[in-house]
Write a structure and sequence with these properties.
The structure is a homodimer of 218-residue chains. Chain A has 218 residues and is of the alpha+beta class. Chain A has helices at residues 14-26, 40-50, 70-90, 93-101, 135-153, 167-174, 199-202; strands at residues 62-66, 112-119, 158-162, 180-189, 215-217. The longest helix of chain A is centred in the middle third of the chain and has 21 residues, at 70-90.
Amino acid sequence: MTPPNLTSTPCFDDRFRAELDTLLSWRRDVRRFRRDPVPRPLLAEVLQLAQLSPSVGNSQPWRFVEVASPAMRAAVKRNFAECNAEALADQAPTRARLYARLKLEGLDAAPAQLAVFCDHATTQGHGLGAKTMPEALDYSVAAMIAVLWLSARARGLGLGWVSILDPARLSADIGAPGSYKFIAYLCLGWPVEEHEAPELERAGWQERTPLGQYILHV
Amino acid sequence: MTPPNLTSTPCFDDRFRAELDTLLSWRRDVRRFRRDPVPRPLLAEVLQLAQLSPSVGNSQPWRFVEVASPAMRAAVKRNFAECNAEALADQAPTRARLYARLKLEGLDAAPAQLAVFCDHATTQGHGLGAKTMPEALDYSVAAMIAVLWLSARARGLGLGWVSILDPARLSADIGAPGSYKFIAYLCLGWPVEEHEAPELERAGWQERTPLGQYILHV
């Protein structure tokens, strides 16, 4: 075991914390993208940083499929359109008109698009931490996406997470191996505009609520 | 809709990005805690920052239960001990001895401990984005934990995520409402030591692997 190397331990200061808090505040789920491409080295850089994310048993179970071909992008858009029509039909009459006006994804314009899976057949980590809670593998992938999101935003890149999709159909369209569980579809690119408040808040769909009411003590 | 307020848009620079990358590198899953308490305002601050995390439909479905009573902490420790004994029994003979030596949690010393749940009965967000993928609610909670983790670490606090637990038993012990799905048990406190490499890597259990082999293109 390597001895602790305390002399080189980083010490974060108030200035850094204030900027980190600004990053968290301005992160946003982006749905309006410019069409200019994301430079390949930049995409590689943020994906590499995401490797530093926590994962159960150090399993790194995330698997990325970059969706670039027009045929596959069209399949994803059809998938979204059908799921979204069903979701609209499900909305209460009082909310349906507002729902129909929401901008929920950037599939048309986002220059980089990634389908993200969790490989439940991975042997990395030797199953540590995933026996009673195999879903911890999925949670590792979701946590990685949060890290990817912040790394991208710190470089000016916006990210949007699309979940209005039929995961079985998307996995079949992409030809994902059977052990791959679909977790998220990510749009990446340069945002058209910047906002500190979430799109769903600005559009009157859902405000943020304070934390207080959600803490119990036992 | 609020117009974009471009004049006050934050611009992150190379110095900030370098410090953010350092934070990601040194984050760590901490299992060795000092026993000094975490100041309540500091705990409140990092939980408040975690509210800025992404969540499907802006649903903020995370619910925190602070576990502080000796009886409840003892129940969590018994839960872990039994699940860990089973996990050890499951290990291949060649790995069992190493598994038995691993330090996997900080339940004895961590001054602050949180059970984190996802409320599947929440109406916040009006179901947006969670019809075809209700598991997106769970992923929102996992992503929130990644943000909480980085916010804590930027303030010198360590966090450890324990998943070697029987979630049904833990939910019953805590008396969680039926709609609450258990996601994670978090230990928080001041780390005894700092490391850039994960504990599981230093102990010879599992090294990190590079990203390259995990990207497919379609």
